[in-house]
Write a structure and sequence with these properties.
By secondary structure, the chain is of the alpha/beta class. It has three domains: 89 residues, 3-Layer(aba) Sandwich (Rossmann fold), CATH 3.40.50.720; 187 residues, 3-Layer(aba) Sandwich (UDP-N-acetylmuramoyl-L-alanine:D-glutamate ligase); 148 residues, Mur ligase, C-terminal domain (Protein-Tyrosine Phosphatase, Chain A, Alpha-Beta Complex). 36% of the residues lie in helices and 19% in strands. The chain has 17 helices and 18 strands. The strands form three sheets. The chain has a seven-stranded mixed sheet with strand order 8-7-9-6-10-11-12, with helices on both faces. The chain has a six-stranded mixed sheet with strand order 13-14-18-15-16-17. A five-stranded parallel sheet has the order 3-2-1-4-5, sandwiched between helices. α3 links the parallel β4 and β5. The longest helix is centred in the middle third of the chain and has 16 residues.
């Protein structure tokens, strides 16, 4: 399959983002900046992302007021967490300014670009990053919208590109990917995730199949044969492919290419080898040379909060400092895969997993799976549940409940509920590990804010 390059389309001039501090919203805001739009936005709280946007020239307001909507705004984009009662949205509707959700706005881009959309319950960001780097190395100049920050993109989550190709991380939350119409769709896996949206795994599989059905005629699907939930759709995928004249590539860890991929990758873990295998197949589909594919895969050293090495922490009684990593894992499947990767990479170091559960509904519905997710850790410290803004959840389970259940399951290992995260240093010191440990700060909430404090251990 060959993709030609052409100039990006011109867009309109003034856009306002409500909920601009989200990782996806901020990437889309940067896209509009790259197209010479005047961009403003608001969010409930300030953070690293909003501060970075201000440096890029975005006018960011903290809080939500109708006066924050620019007088000449032609478009308002809202995150999925924002409802029509928001004062800026109400003002936009009163003025008859066009209002789109983030998925709707992204959906329009997928009609303007030839889009490679990376979907899956897990592994989307890493696969998107590897795909983008491979296309760049292969001579394409893609635009990229990704749900993490990349060193290769100057620490940001967007690349402008000058061609007509878009590499997109396609999230299934809120059924967002129903709005996307890719030329090539990659799916890494299907799992019991976002169970506040999908009532069961059958519902999730139907949703992914509908997303695959959005692939444009004559396009391609790159799918993980090793994932049983995804592979169970093979018959439906075959029917879809015949109807829409799609190329279908099923990739696997059993493929011959994985031998060289394992030797090439700087990131570790079988899940990452699988992600890279998907990208290898993408490169071959686009007629990128193996030399360029492997050069791109080998150049990648990881993304923000994806098994990200942060530094060292000195621990009482240890001659060598502990190694500290940040990771975004917040689902039991992700936790298990991440701990397995670290255990294999650092077999002699005890693993201390500091985990912050994210979203009460996820903890409630996957409680049994969370209880057994930390088996490979030598010690677990659970921080209070991160409560997602704009979700007024009635909490059935809390972190202390998970600590009790996990301790019963892991009876010979310490499982600690730490209500006050400021006491994390002291708690780690008190664990008295036999060797210098590996500390993994894990979760999708604000646990990352506590990592810096560990790095100043003395």
């Amino acid at each position: 399959m060959t993709i030609k390059k052409s100039p990006s389309p011109s867009l309109r001039r003034v856009v306002h983002f409500v909920g601009i501090g989200g990782i996806g919203m901020s990437a889309l805001a940067r896209h509009f900046l790259s197209q010479n739009w005047a961009v403003s936005g608001s969010d409930a709280v300030a953070g690293v992302i909003t501060q970075s946007l201000v440096k890029d020239g975005v006018g960011v307001k903290i809080g939500h007021k109708k006066g924050y909507l620019p007088a000449d705004a032609e478009l308002v984009v809202t995150s999925q967490a924002i409802n029509k009662d928001n004062p800026e949205v109400r003002e936009a509707l009163r003025r008859k300014v066009r209002v789109l959700t983030y998925p709707e706005a992204i959906g329009e881009l997928t009609h303007r670009y030839k889009t490679i959309a990376v979907a899956g319950s897990h592994g989307k960001s890493t696969t998107t990053a590897l795909a983008a780097l491979t296309l760049i190395r292969g001579g394409f100049d893609p635009a990229v919208i990704i749900g993490t920050n990349l060193k290769e993109f100057s620490g940001k989550n967007f690349l402008a590109g000058k061609g007509d190709l878009l590499v997109l991380e396609a999230d299934e939350f809120g059924r967002a990917f129903y709005n996307y119409f890719p030329l090539i769709a990659i799916v890494t896996n299907i799992d019991r995730e976002h169970l506040d949206i999908y009532k069961n795994i059958a519902d999730a599989k139907k949703a992914f199949l509908r997303f695959l059905g959005n692939t444009v005629d004559g396009g391609a699907l790159i799918l993980n044969r090793d994932d049983k939930n995804l592979y169970s759709l093979k018959k439906a995928v075959t029917t879809l492919a015949k109807r829409k004249n799609l190329i279908v590539v099923w990739y696997s860890l059993k493929d011959r290419s994985t031998t060289k991929i394992k030797k090439t990758l700087k990131i570790f873990g079988e899940h990452n080898i699988s992600n890279a295998t998907a990208v290898y197949q993408l490169g071959r589909l686009l007629k990128i040379s193996e030399k360029d594919i492997f050069a791109a895969l080998g150049s990648y050293v990881g993304a923000w909060r994806r098994m990200e090495y942060r530094g060292v922490a000195k621990i009482k009684g240890m001659k060598e400092p502990a190694l500290v990593y940040d990771d975004y894992a917040h689902h039991p499947t992700e936790i298990k895969a991440t701990l397995a990767a670290f255990k294999k990479q650092f077999p002699s170091r005890p693993l201390i997993c500091v985990f912050q559960p994210h979203q009460g509904k996820r903890l409630e519905l996957l409680f049994k799976e969370f209880t057994t997710a930390f088996d490979l850790a030598d010690a677990v410290i659970l921080l209070p549940l991160y409560k997602v803004r704009e979700r007024n959840e009635k909490l059935v389970r809390e972190s202390i409940d998970l600590a009790t259940a996990a301790q019963k399951h892991m009876s010979k290992k310490p499982v600690i509920y730490l209500e006050d995260p400021t006491k994390l240093r002291a708690t780690i010191n008190d664990l008295l590990m036999p060797h210098s440990p590996l500390i993994i700060m894990m979760g999708a909430g604000d646990i990352v804010d506590h990592t810096e404090k560990l790095l100043s251990f003395r």
